[in-house]
Amino acid sequence: MLHWIQYIKGYVTIKVWGYSMERFLNLCGNHDILVWDIEDHGDHVTMKVSIQGFFALKTLLKKTGTKASVLQRHGLPFFVPKIKRRKIFVLGLAACLIFWMVTALFIWDIQIEGNYSLTEDVLMDYLESQGVHTAMKKGDLQIEELERRIRGEYDIITWISLKVDGTTLIIQMRENEMPDYDDSGEEKGDPQSPAESGTDLAAAKDGVIVYMITRKGVPLAAPGDTVEKGQILVSGAVPVYNDDMTIRRYQYYEADADIMISYEKSLSVKKDTAYLEKEYSGREKKILLLGLREKEWNLSAGKVPFQTYDILGEKKQVQLLEHLFLPAFYGIKYAKEYTMIEKTHTEEEMTQIMEEEWNKIMQTLEEKGVQISEKNVTIKKNGQSWTLNARMQLVEQAVKKVKNTTQQIPVAEDVQEAAEE
């Protein structure tokens, strides 16, 4: 703090020499003249003293027979006159400060931390749909409301916190384990009240039921049954019986069951042996670029002298501090020339390509939880193309939730009057 006060008031570094140095320093103390950073150089002494104190040294120098000269000047009183003589610099500095202050009112970067299952692209698309994006005003950002909407949109998020640091919006979150979903992708629910209709489970494909366990609802099919797409397998309307075993009313639930359906599927994949490949010539053109928000300018002279070329490179956003970004960017691009060359795969390459296609099909089915109980795969060469044909017997939880349409049984008037009595 003292250093800043000294800088604002201004001070000088002086050189003092003579025969009565000790007396000179004692008189400075007696007259309350503050000197600091005293260094003895043998034939002279250097020290720092305030501007006001320097002018008060004149009498003491005469009394002690010593001399002094100014070596350096420090502080605002010496800096401001220099600045006044450089008007363009002052205007540029003022413009820079104004630009900095204006850009500090906007969000220029969004960082997401703690997301694993939810990808950054998904979250950024959702933020964009909510009007949250770079170059938006900080004042338009409703943090509490946005936190509530994100939690409501994604059940997997158990905790989320938003904060603005500089010009950066930082989103921190924690995810729970995947919630318990049924086979249609809907989250399993709790029993519904009698006034609600509940949901049924229907077959999503034609096939044969090979496994079925009902946890909630009334099963309308059994293992071994052949079912059609859309057929109700488990009803969410559970009947409540009278003493004479007639249905009194229905209690509605979210039907819940594990149902595996076996069905047949055929597919065919065709690949040509001929293909086009880029061949780079080695010629390239370097392009410098500058950008401001959505606009971009190339600084290189002339057009790209190639007919076909790829643009490779990167650009970086201007960053002043850790979380202080400006709406400007810079970078280097390279235009690399290429020509398309027609080539032909060998039989070994085609065999490997078709095997890779089959492996992709297998991997996709496994990721979806589909089991392959039987398969018949053939790869045939037909002139300039190869064809993969597969016939498979698949087993999966091919069910979906549908709205229950069972109507509540109306209560007879005499029964209702007896119940009221």
Note the overall shape. Answer: elongated
Radius of gyration, CA atoms, in whole angstroms: 41 Å
At the first level of CATH, the class of the domain at 2-80 is Alpha Beta
- The main sheet orders its strands as 13-11-17-23-22
* Proportion of residues in extended strands: over 45%
* Secondary structure tally: strands: 24
Helix proportion: 25-40%
Q: What is the quaternary state of this protein? A: single chain
Structural class: alpha+beta
Major sheet: size, sense and barrel closure? Answer: 5 strands, antiparallel
**Under CATH, the topology of the domain at 2-80 is which?**
Alpha-Beta Plaits
Question: What is the annotated CATH architecture of the domain at 2-80?
Answer: 2-Layer Sandwich
pLDDT averaged over residues? 83
Cα(first) to Cα(last) distance is 87 Å
What is the CATH homology-level superfamily of the domain at 2-80?
Answer: ACT domain
- In DSSP terms (H or I, runs of 4 or more residues), the helix count works out at 9
Instruction: Catalogue the unreliable spans.
Output: 177-195, 413-421
